[in-house]
Amino acid sequence: MIDAAKPISSTTADNTFGGLIRNSIALIRQQQTPSGAYPASPDFSAYAGYCWFRDGAYIADAMSAAGEIESAERFFDWCSNVLTSRNERIRRIIDESLAGRAPVDTDMMPTRFTFDGAEGTDDWWDFQLDGYGTWLWALAEHSARHDRPLTAWAEAINLTIDYLACSWERPCYDWWEEFSEHVHVSTLGCIAAGLERIAHTGLIHELLAERAASTAEQIRRHVQSEGVRDNHLTKWLGTDTVDASLLALIAPMPFLPPHSPVAAGTIAAIEEQLTVENGVHRYLADTYYGGGQWPLLSCFLGLAHAAAGNRTRALELLEWAASTAGENDELPEQVERHLLDPNHLQPWNERWGSSAKPLLWSHAMFIRLTTALGIPHDTAGLTPASAPKENAK
Ligand code: BGC
Fold first, then answer.
1. Catalytic residue status for 226
2. Which residues contact 206 (CB under 8 A, 6 or more apart)?
3. Considering 74, 92, 239, 250, which has the largest number of Cβ atoms within 10 A of its Cβ?
4. Residue 390 domain flag
5. Does 113 share its domain with 36?
6. 58 CA from centroid of ligand 1 (Å)
7. What is the distance between the alpha carbons of residues 190 and 209, in angstroms, rounded to a whole number?
8. Do residues 233 and 242 lie in contact, with contact meaning Cβ atoms separated by under 8 Å?
9. Is 333 a catalytic residue?
């Protein structure tokens, strides 16, 4: 057990978390497909065979932060292929939207694709905008972190900026693929963070950068006027409840300055309403899987605390996330230690089996929090990534 009251030395942290960090990186390397896609969860029936823009972008960011440059870039190549191979369709969406004839939700871009970039045949809650902002953000972060040019992804960046600029105001499904009738504040924040970050790289065309920056500015004003209540961000525009996905907008995506009053208010509301013994729920009315606790959300809360200067609290949350690892160090999507509505667990288990495990996004957020805390990563001797090097830049 770590004594959270004392600052942890990096040697202690390394001993405590080193194996899980190494295994997490190894798992993501092994699971990444030759096309660059990151499977959300290789064996969970509803997710098998698909890669999400949202999960994938956070996984790429974690791999990039851990020094896994090639893995991150292979994912960006996958995103780029998904987008550029739909160039005509995306341009049509943009033209129609600008002409006041915005396509229906089912004609917008999906949230997930098969590993070869197709759309798959299963019905899904597909119209979600956040992942398109998050991939731009992860790519721009990566480029700045490792001093990498953006030339190889220029067309995809251009398409994404134009797509988001004409669609950000639309209601769509949220991070949890629910409530498509609302405009979600975490979705808006992910879009604005991506547009702002890419605009300020200095590596994209000036006019495009201006379009991205001015759209981000409009989103920011919209959130300030309709997405803040009682000094915290809200789950969607016009409510006063919170959702743990809002934490991502403090860190790793600094849509809110981490020391600002609204960031502090958002952390406080999520600690108070959604956190039980360091395990974090998605939102109070959650019933999916009985409303369990998500290790990846404890990591997002840890990242927000770390950015706000509270390393001790961040370490407690990291430790809790690590405690959810099961056999072979696999991290699940969620655990049932504390449920918001236990009646929903059994029907869920009957329908789906047990919680998705391993969930690559959980591993990624665990890695990302350790990098934010400066805990060393020893990947010497790990099997190299299985796929061939593509698009060396
Ligand atoms: C979650 C999404 C996630 C997807 C794949 C869904 O259950 O709600 O946020 O992107 O699983 O991990």
1. no
2. none
3. 250
4. no
5. yes
6. 12
7. 17
8. yes
9. yes
65 inside domain: yes
With a 6 Å cutoff on the Cβ, whether 44 touches ligand 1 is no
Q: Is 294 in the pocket of ligand 1 (CB under 6 A)?
A: no
CATH number at residue 204: 1.50.10.10
Residues 89 and 220 in one domain: yes
Helix (H) or strand (E) holding 306: helix 295-307
Q: How many CB atoms lie under 10 A from the CB of residue 309?
A: 11
User: For residues 332 and 326, is the Cβ–Cβ distance under 8 A?
Assistant: yes
Probe residue for ligand 1, chosen from 38, 50, 52 as the CB with the greatest number of ligand atoms within 8 Å: 52
The verdict on whether 330 is a catalytic residue reads: no
- Asked whether residue 14 falls in the same domain as residue 60, the answer is no
Residue from 73, 162, 174, 336 carrying the catalytic annotation: 174
Contact 110, 53 (CB under 8 A): no
Same domain? For 54 and 193 the reply is yes
176 CB within 6 A, ligand 1: yes
Ligand 1 pocket, mutate which of 41, 45, 47 (most atoms under 8 A from CB): 47
What is the full per-residue pLDDT of the chain (393 aa) written as tens digits? 344 444 455 566 667 899 999 999 999 999 999 999 999 999 999 999 999 999 999 999 999 999 999 999 999 999 999 999 999 999 999 999 999 999 999 999 999 999 999 998 999 999 999 999 999 999 999 999 999 999 999 999 999 999 999 999 999 999 999 999 999 999 999 999 999 999 999 999 999 999 999 999 999 999 999 999 999 999 999 999 999 999 999 999 999 999 999 999 999 999 999 999 999 999 999 999 999 999 999 999 999 999 999 999 999 999 999 999 999 999 999 999 999 999 999 999 999 899 999 999 999 999 999 999 999 988 877 866 544 333 333
Residues 62 and 12 in one domain: no
Pick from 28, 44, 54, 355 the residue to mutate for probing ligand 1's pocket: most ligand atoms within 8 Å of its CB. Answer: 54
- Alpha-carbon gap, residue 326 to 355, rounded angstroms: 12
Catalytically annotated residue among 77, 330, 333, 336? 333
Whether residue 171 sits in one domain with residue 69: yes
What is the position in ligand 1's atom list of the atom closest to the CA of 50?
5
Any atom of ligand 1 within 6 Å of the Cβ of 177: yes
Phi, psi (deg, nearest 5) at residue 389: -65, 130
Q: Domain check: are 173 and 244 in the same one?
A: no
- Please provide the DSSP assignment of 269-299 as one string: HHHHHHEETTEE-S-TT--GGGT-B-HHHHH
Is residue 54 within 6 Å of ligand 1 at its C-beta?
yes
Nearest residue (by CA) to ligand 1, atom 10, is 55
The reply to whether 372 and 259 lie within a common domain is yes
Give the domain range for residue 292: 1-20+233-380
